[in-house]
Amino acid sequence: MWVELGEIFNRLSLDPSVRAIIMTGAGDKAFTAGLDVKAASNGLLSDGPITEPARKAVHLRRHITSFQDCISAIEKCEKPVIVAMHGFSLGLAIDLSSAADVRLAAKDAKFAVKEVDIGLAADIGTLSRLPKIVGNFGWVKDVSLTARIFGAEEALRVGLVSQVFDSKGDALKGAIELASLIASKSPVAVQGTKEILNWSRDHTVQDGLRYTAVWNSAALQTKDVQAALLSGIQKRKPTFEKL
């Protein structure tokens, strides 16, 4: 499932017919209930045939890195990714959603950075991305060290999600409306905006400005700029070619 998830996002990233992506969970109970602890205890987290510490460390590091790459495919995807969460949204839900661009939630959503309850430090992206999303290290340490469950309203208050809806259906409807709006924009502008925002997050302001200048020196040569400007003047809805 991990590998296929990464492959799907890598394909969607390059598909010119795709302009925005929505991820949601099947069923009414949960977006994801987190790690299958029983399966993990018999698999990757079991003692296994390798006993020499250094060799076991290399084996585990390779596995962890491959899992990280699968989730990072969401962030690296050129197209904006919207996550609509509901019900139990534990563990991996935070990894997945923090790699996405926009997070929405139903009011019944129950979140948790659950890994300390199973003897782990969250290792697939939460501890690296969540502090940069909410900008509050104290709160991140609170939920990460305690593994406590927090609700949609708290997630909204700290900025983990941008909107809360009455139900899963409403959250999905909101995600579709948002994705449709994004899809109506110039794909050159949308994909460039995602790239520059993600790059600037991890660099200084001056580095971000320089990268933006280099990026737009190519991107501004698109016909989309003229089409967008003329549509405003002519009071009509613009259309943009696939990218």
UniProtKB/TrEMBL annotation:
Source superkingdom: Eukaryota
Entry-linked InterPro entries: ClpP/crotonase-like_dom_sf, Ech1-like, Enoyl-CoA_hydra/iso, Enoyl-CoA_hydra_C
Span of the signal peptide: none
Pathways involved: Lipid metabolism; fatty acid beta-oxidation
Keywords: Fatty acid metabolism, Isomerase, Lipid metabolism
Pfam family, one: ECH_1
Family: Belongs to the enoyl-CoA hydratase/isomerase family.
Protein name: ClpP/crotonase
Record organism: Aspergillus lucknowensis
